[in-house]
Specification:
The chain is of the alpha/beta class. It starts with a helix and ends with a strand. It has a six-stranded mixed sheet with strand order 2-1-3-8-9-10, sandwiched between helices. About 5% of the residues have low confidence. The chain has two domains: 45 residues; 218 residues, Rossmann fold (3-Layer(aba) Sandwich). It is globular, with a radius of gyration of 34 Å. The chain has nine helices and ten strands.
């Protein structure tokens, strides 16, 4: 029995040395593996994913083209080129044809999240007297007013009409129907939500003849409003709008820079001498 105990005591140090050697070898191998492929060791030890999680792709900015003038003077080539400029710049573009440009459309517009909106739209400072009348017989509340394509009905939107948010107006040709037009008070009181620092472009007559409409859009979150200080011919407007959009998209100019370049290259309207302007 004494001999067996002595033999066990002799073997114990050898076993401990053997186990220690194995432990040192494992630590050495793990250290080398960590230097060569730390991610593999990490996956082995803690079950980390084999590839890093991909960050979500940001949604493209959204733009809208509101083609109200197509109701009376269609310009399909203009619309196509404007849409191409915006899409080439990475915008997701929604096109609203004339039949969709209603009072309800404008009411819900801010909530749609557009970063740029082009209103290819008739606008005016001349709205009709209550009860009708001809253009020129008008009682102008603070304007300008943007046209819809919704036919005027004195029995609809009565509260908004009484409050001068909506008025009736006509285009400058003999058989023009009376249409609803919306003014600054509509933007302030009846639109839902806020524009997300939106660039708003109004390609229509007198859209910046007075600051009230532009100021209302700014109060609702727009970053800048661009428009005309007087009457403008449709062909001149289209040329200026395309040059403006090219500056904003292809050339990467700020709205103010794009307006200045458009003024220099396209110039004022040759008939009405109106000039492209912006606020603020």
């Amino acid at each position: 029995m004494q001999d067996n105990r002595e033999e066990k005591n002799k073997r114990l140090p050898r076993v401990l040395l053997w186990l220690g050697g194995i432990a040192l070898a494992l630590l050495f191998l793990l250290g080398i593996a960590n230097l060569v492929a730390p991610s593999a060791v990490q996956r082995l030890l803690v079950g980390a994913p084999s590839t890093p999680a991909a960050s979500p792709t940001p949604a493209p900015p959204k733009a809208a083209i509101v083609d109200q003038t197509g109701f009376s003077f269609p310009s399909p080539e203009f619309i196509a080129q404007a849409q191409a400029y915006l899409e080439d710049a990475g915008y997701e573009v929604d096109l609203y044809p004339p039949e969709e440009v209603t009072v309800e459309f404008f009411r819900t517009l801010p909530d749609r999240g557009y970063r740029l909106i082009l209103f290819q739209s008739h606008a005016t400072s001349e709205v009709l007297l209550e009860g009708g009348g001809d253009v020129g017989q008008y009682n102008p509340p603070p304007g300008p007013f943007l046209f819809t394509t919704e036919l005027y009905d004195e029995h609809r939107y009565i509260g908004m009409q009484i409050d001068d948010q909506l008025r009736a107006s006509k285009l400058f040709y003999d058989d023009s129907p009376r249409l609803f037009a919306l003014g600054p008070k509509f933007v302030r009181s009846s639109m839902n939500g806020l524009f997300p620092d939106t660039v708003i472009i109004i390609g229509g007559c007198q859209s910046l003849a007075a600051p009230d409409l532009a100021q209302a859009f700014l109060e609702r979150g727009a970053s800048v409003v661009i428009g005309w200080d007087d009457m403008v011919d449709l062909m001149h407007n289209n040329e200026a709008m395309l040059r403006l959009l090219r500056g904003l998209t292809v050339e990467g100019l700020s709205p103010q820079e794009a307006v200045e370049v458009t003024r220099k290259e396209v110039g004022p309207d040759p008939t009405y001498e109106s000039v492209l302007s912006y606020l603020p």
